[in-house]
Design a protein that fits this description.
By secondary structure, the protein is α+β, with helices and mostly antiparallel strands. The chain has two domains: 44 residues, no CATH class; 94 residues, YaeB-like fold. Helix content is 36%, strand content 19%. The chain has a five-stranded mixed beta sheet with strand order 1-5-4-3-2. The chain is globular. 15% of the residues are buried.
């Protein structure tokens, strides 16, 4: 099968057992590639778990935001906490994913809610200093950083 014939095939015909005019099968002539999401277990490195430390000020920020959302609608505070938890888990998995905003401090955004998690990442520890609403004065979270 030539390159031009492969190019003319639609995605719906790739991998299906269909006959070509010359009698050969399409699926046997196309090289099978591994899925990009599949790798052997030998290629995975053992991840070192990062220790997560939440500063008392950040815990107060979280409690205040939870109370505010619960007053607006029952159950919304729980949804807020689950979104913050998902953000913290993402930070623990890939702490260098978020950009630095001040010296070595990074800011991770919380999905669905206008909040940001400000943290510092070292080799084995992640320290969360603040969980702020994004419309607050930036000087407040800057003052909180040690």
């Amino acid at each position: 099968m030539t390159w031009r014939r492969r190019r003319r095939m639609s995605r719906s015909t790739i991998g299906k057992k269909q006959n070509c005019p010359d009698g050969s099968r399409i699926w046997s002539s196309i090289p099978q590639l591994d899925s990009p999401g599949r790798t052997s277990r030998k290629e995975f490195a053992i991840a070192v778990p990062n220790k997560l430390v939440i500063a008392p000020e950040a815990a107060v920020d979280l409690a205040d935001a939870f109370d505010w959302y619960e007053e607006r609608r029952p159950g919304l505070g729980e949804e807020f906490l689950s979104c913050v938890d998902a953000s913290l888990q993402q930070i623990c998995r890939i702490p260098e994913m978020y950009p630095t905003v001040l010296h070595d401090y990074r800011r991770g955004l919380v999905r669905r809610f206008p909040y940001a998690v400000f943290y510092e990442y070292t080799v084995s520890t992640i320290v969360v200093y603040a969980i702020f609403h994004t419309s607050m004065n930036p000087q407040k979270w800057r003052d909180r950083m040690p």
